[in-house]
Design a protein that fits this description.
GO molecular function: heme binding; iron ion binding; monooxygenase activity; oxidoreductase activity, acting on paired donors, with incorporation or reduction of molecular oxygen
Protein name: Cytochrome P450
Distance between the termini: 48 Å
CATH architecture: Orthogonal Bundle
Organism: Planotetraspora silvatica
CATH topology: Cytochrome p450
Strand order of the largest sheet: 1-2-3-9-6-4
Pfam family, one: p450
Number of domains: 1
Strand content: 5-15%
Number of strands: 11
Helix content: 40-55%
Cofactor: heme
CATH class: Mainly Alpha
C-alpha cells in the first residue's frame, strides 16, 4: 500500500536515535500532505516539505487554537503544554500577540545575550568541574545538558538558586505527553502557578534586574503593559519553552559531533566553526519531538490538497530541514554550511522568541567543552543511544561520555 493510501501513526518511530525515520524522505517526495493518527487516536495532517511547513507556520489562518471543539487531541492524557488553559492567557495572534512579543522580546536581543554570556560560561564551567570530580564515564545530559538551561532561565527570572531543582521537575512534567498522569501534570502546573504567583508578588515589592521586574515596571494594560496573570504565565512559558528543548539539544548536538569524531577534531582545530556547527546540528536534528501543531479555521490548500476547516496540521520542521530541494547534501552534516535557513525555530509571527538564547547557550556549551574536555568521546557505540519516549520536544535518554 502506498503512503498516500495508508494512515501512519505519529510520531513516526525511528530505529536509530540520531537518524530520521525512513518514511520522511518518501513522504516528502510522494505524499507531502499525509494522514496520520496521533497518540490520542485522533486524525491529523502531517506536512514534511520545507516550503509547505514554512508557508503554514507563517500563515495566520493556521492558529494555535488546539482547544477548539473539533481540534485533534494530541494525547489521551491531554495535550500538556500545547493546549492547557495557560497557553490561552498569552495572546495567540494579531496585534496583541505582537505587542506581547515586543515587550518580552527586549530580553532576548543579541545584545542582551552577549551580556549574559559570561554568566553562562561560569555555569558551564562549574557543571563541568562537577562532572570531572565524579570522573568518567558520565551522563553529559544529566551533568550539563539538563541543568544549564534551567539555571540560566532561573537567573533571567530572578529565581533563587535553591529553587532550581523544583523548576526542573515542573518543566519536565509540563512537557511530557505520556510519562506523567493527568493528575501529576495538573499538580505540577498548580504548584508552578502558585510559586510564580508568589514570585511575581515578591518582584512587585522588590524589583531586581530580571525579566519579570522589567515587565512589572512597564505598567499594567492601561500603560501598554501586561496583567499580573500574563506576567506570571510569561515566566512559566519561558521556563517550559527554554529549558527542555535546549537541554535535549545540548545532548543531541554533542552526540552528533562525537558520532563521527572527525567532526569534533575539526572543531578542536578550528573553533571559528562553532557557530555554523551549532546551526547545522539544529538543522540535522532528526529527533526534535512532535513538531508544531496548528488548527485550521478556514478551508485552504497545501501542495494541491484541499484541507477542510477544522483540520489539525502537524508541521514537521525536522523533516523539512532535510528537504533535498532546499539543502544540498541534506542528509550530511556540513560544519561550514552557510547560509543555513533551517526551520528549527519555526518562522513568521510565532518563530521561537528565545532563539538567540538557545543559540548562545549551545555555542557556550560547545566552546567550554572543547576547551575543558578536548578528548571527549561517546562511552557507548552510537547505536546504543536511546530516544526519550513521550516528550513533546524529543531527546536522548542519556548521553554517556568519557574523556
Amino acid at each position: 500500500m502506498s503512503l498516500d493510501e495508508q494512515v501512519l501513526s505519529y510520531p513516526i518511530p525511528s530505529d536509530a536515535a540520531l537518524e530520521p525515520p525512513a518514511e520522511w524522505a518518501e513522504l516528502r517526495s510522494k505524499c507531502p500532505v499525509a494522514h496520520v493518527t496521533l497518540p490520542s487516536g485522533d486524525q491529523a495532517t502531517l506536512l514534511t516539505r520545507y516550503e509547505d511547513v514554512k508557508r503554514v507556520l507563517a500563515d495566520p489562518r493556521f492558529t494555535r487554537q488546539l482547544n477548539a471543539p473539533d481540534a485533534a487531541r494530541l494525547s489521551a492524557e491531554g495535550d500538556g503544554v500545547f493546549s492547557s488553559e495557560m497557553a490561552q492567557i498569552i495572546p495567540d495572534g494579531g496585534d496583541e500577540h505582537q505587542h506581547w512579543r515586543r515587550l518580552v522580546g527586549k530580553w532576548f536581543t543579541a545584545k542582551r545575550m552577549a551580556a549574559l554570556r559570561p554568566s553562562m560560561e561560569q555555569i558551564a564551567e562549574r557543571l563541568i568541574d562537577d562532572m570531572v570530580k565524579c570522573g568518567p564515564p558520565c551522563d553529559l545530559k544529566a551533568g550539563l545538558g539538563f541543568p544549564l538551561p534551567v539555571y540560566v532561565i532561573c537567573d533571567m527570572l530572578g529565581v533563587p538558586a535553591a529553587d532550581r531543582e523544583r523548576f526542573s521537575y515542573w518543566s519536565d512534567a509540563l512537557l511530557n505527553l505520556t510519562r506523567y498522569s493527568r493528575a501529576e501534570m495538573e499538580a505540577a502546573q498548580g504548584e508552578f502557578f502558585q510559586y510564580m504567583s508568589d514570585h511575581v508578588a515578591t518582584k512587585r515589592a522588590e524589583a531586581g534586574d530580571d525579566v519579570l521586574s522589567e515587565l512589572i515596571a512597564a505598567g499594567g494594560p492601561e500603560d501598554g503593559g501586561l496583567t499580573d496573570l500574563q506576567i506570571l504565565v510569561t515566566g512559566m512559558a519561558l521556563l517550559v519553552a527554554g529549558h527542555e528543548t535546549t537541554a535535549n539539544m545540548i545532548g543531541k548536538m554533542v552526540s552528533m559531533l562525537l558520532a563521527d569524531r572527525s567532526r569534533w577534531e575539526r572543531l578542536l582545530a578550528d573553533p571559528s566553526l562553532i557557530r555554523t556547527a551549532v546551526e547545522e546540528a539544529l538543522r540535522l536534528d532528526a529527533n526534535s519531538g512532535f513538531g508544531l501543531p496548528r488548527y485550521l479555521r478556514d478551508e485552504t490548500e497545501v501542495s494541491g490538497t484541499v484541507l477542510p476547516r477544522g483540520t489539525t496540521v502537524v508541521c514537521s520542521m525536522a523533516a523539512a530541514n532535510r528537504d533535498e530541494s532546499v539543502f544540498e547534501g541534506a542528509a550530511e552534516m556540513d560544519l561550514r554550511r552557510s547560509p543555513n535557513a533551517h526551520l528549527a525555530f519555526g518562522v513568521g509571527a510565532h518563530s521561537c522568541l528565545g532563539q538567540a538564547l538557545a543559540r548562545t547557550e549551545l555555542q557556550v556549551v560547545l566552546e567550554v567543552l572543547l576547551r575543558r574536555l578536548p578528548s571527549l568521546e561517546l562511552a557507548v557505540p552510537v547505536e546504543e543511544l536511546e530516544r526519550v519516549e513521550g516528550l513533546a520536544v524529543g531527546g536522548l535518554r542519556t548521553v554517556p561520555v568519557r574523556w
